[in-house]
């Protein structure tokens, strides 16, 4: 499960043995509150995205930091066998989120 932004798409990207699909989160049992927050995050990104010329898109304040926090919540709600990835807001590299004890 990867959490990242793409214009006019859901935040969650499923791949691997469960298939390849773009999800809002309810399909995999995430809480309604988390699904709502994921949708709000995507809406913020869409609002700032310049589809005519993407390089002109302004930075959405705290966008990567918010994504990281959402990814941690996704990790907490999924079973241990799931792998959850996102972009580290500091290094801007892909990371795997560890299970919290």
Structure characterization notes:
This protein has 101 residues and is α+β, with helices and mostly antiparallel strands. It has one domain (2-96). Helices cover 32% and strands 14% of the residues. The protein has helices at 32-48, 63-77; strands at residues 2-3, 12-14, 21-23, 85-87, 94-96. The strands form 2 sheets. It has a 3-stranded antiparallel beta sheet. It has a two-stranded antiparallel ribbon with strand order 4-5. Helix 1 (32-48) runs antiparallel to helix 2 (63-77). The chain is globular, with a radius of gyration of 13 Å. It starts with a strand and ends in a 5-residue tail after the last strand. The model has no long low-confidence stretch (mean pLDDT 92).
What is the C-alpha radius of gyration, as a whole number of Å?
A: 13 Å
Estimate the helix proportion, in percent. 25-40%
Assembly form of the protein: single chain
Overall pLDDT score: 92
Order of helices and strands: EEEHHEE
Number of domains: 1
How many DSSP helices? 2
Please state the overall shape, judged from the principal axes of the Cα atoms: globular
Note the main attributes of this structure.
101 residues, two-stranded antiparallel sheet, 14% strand, 5 strands
Write a short abstract of this structure.
By secondary structure, the protein is an alpha+beta fold. It contains two helices and five strands. The strands form two sheets. Strands 1-2-3 form a three-stranded antiparallel beta sheet. Strands 4-5 form a two-stranded antiparallel ribbon.
């Amino acid at each position: 499960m990867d959490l990242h932004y793409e214009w006019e798409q859901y935040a969650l990207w499923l791949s691997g043995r469960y298939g390849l699909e773009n999800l809002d989160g309810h399909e995999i049992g995430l809480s309604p509150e988390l699904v709502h927050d994921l949708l709000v995050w995507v809406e913020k990104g869409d609002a700032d995205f310049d589809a005519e010329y993407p390089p002109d898109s302004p930075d959405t304040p705290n966008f990567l930091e918010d994504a990281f926090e959402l990814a941690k919540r996704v990790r907490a709600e999924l079973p241990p066998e799931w792998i959850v990835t996102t972009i580290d807001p500091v290094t801007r590299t892909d990371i795997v989120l560890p299970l919290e004890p």
